[in-house]
């Protein structure tokens, strides 16, 4: 049996967030095949037939989104192998945040190299990945975390920057770019 996930057509904001089967799996009627998510609900799509999964095809009109989600899934699998357990939702969001950061760095490098075609591609991928990454903290929220870290660690010199960075990054849990925090801490500590 070949599993085909239908094109979602005009359903904007509906994404396949998890494929629950793989080739070789045996499924019965009503076995959940994929999980879809929109801003309103998360839903499992059941099988309409029983059999053994031969191949899994995701049909989508947006090849960039499909490719990006496949890359994210691969990054999640690699991370699971590194930590030897299934990732929690927060850990998956951290992986997505790392992928967003990679795209941001690539965009800058491609822009400097005059590769506007690749800037466009990486920007589209980053936009897709941002939906799965934690929402980033605002500047005032980052400032408040830095202030809290300075009080908690008692740091007063640039030599203690690592303590402050560790405190802020531990509390922010992927919700802020380390370079932003580093600049703010350096500014406050006079480095």
Overall pLDDT score: 81
Largest sheet: 3 strands, antiparallel
Shape: elongated
Helix content: 40-55%
Number of beta strands: 7
Whole-Å distance between the termini?
A: 63 Å
- Range of strand content: 5-15%
Order of strands, main sheet, comes to 2-4-5
**Helix-strand pattern:** EEEEEEEHHHHHH
- Tally of distinct domains: 3
Descriptive notes:
- With 191 residues, this protein is α+β, with helices and mostly antiparallel strands.
- Mean pLDDT is 81; it is low at 5-11.
- The chain is elongated and about 65 Å long.
- It is built from 6 helices and 7 strands.
- 16% of the residues are buried.
- It folds into 3 domains: 3-60, RNA polymerase II/Efflux pump adaptor protein, barrel-sandwich hybrid domain (OB fold (Dihydrolipoamide Acetyltransferase, E2P)); 68-130; 139-189, Arc Repressor Mutant, subunit A, CATH 1.10.10.
- It has helices at residues 63-83, 89-112, 116-130, 139-153, 161-172, 178-189; strands spanning 3-5, 15-19, 26-27, 32-37, 42-46, 51-52, 56-58.
